[in-house]
Amino acid sequence: MATKAILRIATRSSRLALWQAEHVQSRLGQLHPALKFELVPITTTGDKIVDRPLAKIGGKGLFIKELEQALFDERADLAVHSMKDMPVKIPDGLHIPVILEREDPRDAVISNAGVSFAELEPNAIIGTSSLRRRSQMLAQRNDLTVSDLRGNVTTRLEKLRHGEFDAIVLAAAGLKRLGFGDQISSVFAAAELIPAVGQGAIGIECRSADALTHALIEPLHDRTTGLCIEAERAMSEILEGGCDLPLAAHATVEQGDLRLAGLVASADGLKIVRREISGSPNDGVELGQQLGRELLAGGAREILDDLRKAEN
Predict the structure, then answer these.
(1) Quick one: which of 161, 162, 181 has its CA closest to 170?
(2) Taking the alpha carbons of 110, 111, 114, 119 in that order, is the dihedral positive or negative?
């Protein structure tokens, strides 16, 4: 079979995104020692606009479209993404055939005092860019002030150290990948603060018709992670959700069963609809769709309608 001499990898230019792209490059290099690689760093619209909440400017899809355009233009053969940034709808002509084994999907607290979320002083200021985190934290502690926090991981940590916040919440996976795991003050259990759809997982996107690239990257696919991410994304699709809405999903495979927890909340945390479902891992998409419908029937539809009205 014909092969490629060089594989071009599109990535955001942030430190974490480059780490992920270099990780994929390293894994592929081990599999294909003769293959050469070229990183194609791209500064996306989402990276350029750092002074406004993501929900107000179009959501995390703003981190994706320029990478996908590089694939369409054949300036890159594949794009490496954080799956939590990926919209549910993938453009025609592209697909995500490979998802790597998931890192820790949980959310982590870093506080200046080194204390856990439960130990923060009343009226402490906690920073996050996520409505999902905001709503679930306020549901547990409405005595805290949750303020918007944008920027890459390093910028967010600097804002914390400069005293703009008493604590910040970030994905544990990103902190660990960048070597900041020792700064984590506490970690939310996934059942305590349900993660974002796809959190902790790296996906590889390529052109659907590019069989050569598909064959090269396919050995990196982790089947269990892929089944879990499919279930989470299926739930999100039913809810017509994106990363800019306060919805959460977390799937695991335990003792042969896929277990999926889902949540939709109002931004202030006063209304929360939460459901769980389990079944065969091979039925993950159907389970996700069913859970999405159960959430809608249980009150999520009204919450989401109110949120969308507020945005317009």
Answers:
(1) 181
(2) negative
Phi, psi of 105 (to 5 degrees): -85, 0
pLDDT in tens, 166-207: 999 999 999 999 999 999 999 999 999 999 999 999 999 999
Alpha-carbon dihedral of residues 304, 307, 311, 312, nearest 10 degrees? Answer: 70
Amino acid type, 2: A
Distance CA 206, CA 217 (A): 10
Q: Which domains does the chain have, with CATH numbers?
A: 6-100+200-221 (3.40.190.10), 107-187 (3.40.190.10), 234-311 (3.30.160.40)
* pTM for the whole structure: 0.91
Strands 272-279 and 186-187: unpaired
* Per-residue tokens: 167: 């604590």
For residue 102, count other CB atoms closer than 10 A to its CB: 21
What is the set of active-site residues?
85
How many angstroms separate the CA atoms of 134 and 268, rounded?
A: 7
